[in-house]
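4.2 Preliminary Data

To establish feasibility before requesting continued support, the project team ran the inverse folding procedure on a target of 405 residues. The structure was first converted into the token representation described in Section 3, and no sequence information of any kind was made available to the design step. The complete token record follows.
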């Protein structure tokens, strides 16, 4: 088989991280194949994965053509007589159990994280959590969050610096608030981790003092960017020496234990609700840093970690940018903004499949030390070459004669 110069890992090796036995076992445990004649869970998985590699803009029509393509059937050893139509794919996506794909996603992540545990253990310490919105411009989305008059879905992701390690997809209006969506992602990730020692880094999405208190009570460490001039009560300054205040490009203005205020809803005699400020009985740490190059540009951070230095807190927050790069990657290279299905069930399935494909490409990119676009293109080329080799072998030929290195 063709091997690109300087590459240390091939697509064929990475695809083995998703063994066929796993798909078969999950088909039984999730009962994903009950009442289905053709589009079994395993076939849908292979169809979506291959479709994502082969098409710049996936649709139900392209999935129909892909399934009926003899090359696809050879690659995944399917019956050449089986065919499906677009409507069958649409209906299957709307009803197939997303938990089947969630478990494949989580098992794949677990395998990859074990493989890279020693070399990248430090990067698995900080979990970046953020959300992105995808709007349906055609207005066909069955259920969605209002986004400037358009229906939209929100996908919230936990990212360990190398791979996506958690995913939640939201369509209900209540999840338009990050104070509602992001805690669900954090709590879901915490449940999967034994002896969790991760620090969850978030942008301004988390502002609820009650959520921060709940995190602290559950021993969940977090760092988030606070709104400037937020009301607080200082308990104790943690700055010991003036020399600790100079961070190079920025300077430490405050590092203190504080208590925060929150708005408590109160109903008046007329039945209207207004909010009264109340001090929350929980201690947090407020760090304020001022940029030297931008006059009076301040960054306020809140955390419940009392052990890291203020500089380490600031550096941890800067690493949050990794998830922004990840979102750009899946939007530009994996076309996640294009909706293949218009109902929540199908959207969840497609998001899990996109995350699985993203993991394959990100590991391929990292190990082979190449860019995102190059990684996706070369991975697809290697998959195509696997298909060609299978065809040559089936026809009685020797693929080594074609793929000379």
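Position-by-position output of the design step:
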């Amino acid at each position: 088989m063709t091997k690109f110069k300087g590459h240390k890992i091939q697509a064929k090796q990475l695809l083995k991280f998703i063994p066929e036995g796993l798909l078969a076992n999950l088909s039984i445990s999730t009962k994903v194949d009950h009442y289905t004649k053709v589009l079994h869970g395993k076939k849908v998985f292979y169809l979506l994965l291959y479709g994502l590699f082969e098409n710049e803009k996936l649709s139900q029509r392209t999935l129909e053509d892909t399934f009926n393509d003899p090359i696809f059937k050879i690659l995944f050893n399917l019956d050449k007589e089986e065919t499906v139509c677009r409507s069958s794919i649409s209906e299957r996506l709307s009803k197939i159990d997303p938990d089947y794909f969630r478990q494949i996603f989580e098992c794949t992540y677990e395998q990859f994280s074990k493989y890279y545990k020693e070399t990248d253990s430090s990067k698995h310490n900080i979990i970046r959590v953020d959300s992105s919105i995808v709007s349906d411009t055609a207005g066909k989305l069955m259920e969605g969050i209002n986004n400037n008059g358009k229906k939209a879905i929100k996908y919230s992701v936990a990212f360990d610096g190398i791979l996506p390690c958690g995913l939640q997809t939201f369509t209900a209006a209540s999840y338009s608030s990050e104070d509602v969506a992001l805690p669900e992602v954090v709590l879901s990730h915490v449940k999967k981790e034994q002896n969790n020692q991760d620090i969850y880094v978030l942008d301004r999405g988390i502002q609820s003092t009650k959520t921060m208190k709940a995190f602290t009570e559950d021993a969940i460490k977090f760092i988030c960017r606070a709104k400037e001039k937020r009301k607080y009560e200082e308990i104790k300054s943690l700055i010991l020496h003036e020399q600790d205040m100079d961070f190079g490009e920025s300077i430490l203005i405050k590092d203190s234990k504080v208590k925060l205020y929150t708005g408590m809803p109160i109903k008046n005699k007329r039945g209207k609700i207004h909010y009264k400020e109340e001090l929350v009985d929980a201690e947090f740490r407020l760090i304020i840093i001022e940029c030297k190059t931008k006059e009076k540009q301040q960054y306020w951070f809140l955390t419940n970690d009392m052990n890291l230095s203020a500089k380490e807190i600031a550096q941890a927050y800067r690493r949050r940018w990794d998830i922004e790069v990840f979102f750009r990657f899946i939007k530009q290279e994996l076309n996640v903004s294009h909706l293949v299905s218009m109902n929540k069930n199908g959207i969840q399935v497609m998001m899990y499949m996109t995350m699985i494909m993203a993991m394959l490409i990100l590991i391929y990119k990292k190990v082979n030390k190449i860019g995102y676009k190059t990684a996706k293109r070369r991975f697809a080329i290697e998959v195509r070459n696997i298909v060609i080799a299978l065809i040559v072998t089936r026809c009685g030929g020797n693929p080594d004669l074609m793929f000379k290195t």
